[in-house]
Design goal:
The protein is of the alpha+beta class and 299 residues long. Helices cover 36% and strands 15% of the residues. The longest helix is centred in the middle third of the chain and has 22 residues, at 149-170.
């Protein structure tokens, strides 16, 4: 008889896929309600899969949100606070523009037609009062179309603090990719937390994680109510991993568009959405030809 023992196995490591409820719109605009609370509002047509659970391969939402925090911090570093009225008063058009750009790419981070202390779940309003459902003269018939910016910034601050606590616990502050996401004050905070014996995470306690068996695909799904809750799931997965790039790939910043992306190869430089090596080469070639033509005309 031959040797029946094997040196490897076909049994995969256990894993769970995540599905997330999205709220994407053709357009995004500013709004303000009668109390003075500033909102971001989705308008126009919405994709057919909006408000339904969809599977996503976007594993970099957490890092996009941390980068968003840094971009806003660079504009106004004192805006992050748990006092939402204070935050609302400091919101400027520059900050609104940064958040609008994020929404155009990823959809609404959460939705609610009033301020909330927990942006990791969506609270459906049961009010039928049309007067309460008007923001700057824009009647919206579901709170799935809008969110208060001050609540988002307060929740983003909580997520960012948890991210820093994780970096301190894992001693990842010297990672070349992580460094690009950190401000000087972040680095000071991490150094302080590295000497601490406690590294608690706050945001996972706000998320009622629910799983569901998909009998069609024969798989267990984690159901996330919005992309903020999905980002907390990614945070928990990273917190449990042994090393930063040990979760299956590499995180990079695209050499062309400066967006964060998940690279399957360690030498991958472009995000492929939409930047590719060929596209960058073609753009440089067109720019060179245009420059040469201008030089010819000037002669």
């Amino acid at each position: 008889m031959g040797n029946l023992t094997r040196q490897d196995t076909e049994v995969c490591a256990p894993s769970i896929k995540a599905v997330v409820k999205m709220s994407k719109w053709m357009n995004y605009e500013r709004g303000i309600d009668k109390s003075g609370t500033k909102f971001i509002i989705g308008s126009g047509e919405k994709p057919v899969d909006s408000f339904e659970y969809v599977e996503t391969e976007n594993g970099n939402l957490l890092f996009q949100l941390i980068k968003l925090y840094k971009d806003i911090y660079n504009v106004k570093n004192n805006i992050f606070s748990s006092n939402q009225q204070y935050v609302n008063d400091l919101i400027s058009e520059d900050i609104e523009d940064i958040i609008l750009n994020f929404c155009r790419k990823n959809g609404l981070p959460f939705w609610n037609n009033k301020r909330t202390s927990n942006i990791f779940i969506n609270v459906e309003s049961k009010s039928n009062d049309a007067e309460e459902r008007i923001i700057s003269g824009i009647p919206y018939f579901t709170n799935q179309m809008a969110f208060p910016i001050c609540s988002f910034l307060s929740g983003l601050n909580n997520l960012h603090t948890d991210f820093l606590n994780m970096i301190a616990f894992k001693c990842w502050n010297d990672d070349i990719f992580i460094e690009t996401l950190l401000s000087d004050s972040d680095k000071d905070y991490i150094k302080t937390k590295m000497n601490s014996k406690r590294h608690d995470l706050y945001t996972p306690c706000l998320c009622p994680f629910i799983t569901e068996w998909d009998y069609k695909k024969m798989s267990l799904c984690l159901k996330c109510e919005n992309i903020m809750q999905l980002s907390v799931y990614h945070l928990c997965i990273l917190f449990q991993s042994e090393n930063f790039n040990g979760v299956g790939g590499h995180w990079r910043i695209c050499d062309c568009c400066n967006q964060i992306f998940y690279a399957t190869r360690s030498n991958q430089k472009y995000c492929r959405n939409p930047c590719t090596k060929q596209a960058v080469y073609s753009a440089k070639k067109r720019h060179k030809m245009k420059k040469n033509n201008l030089n010819c005309f000037s002669i």
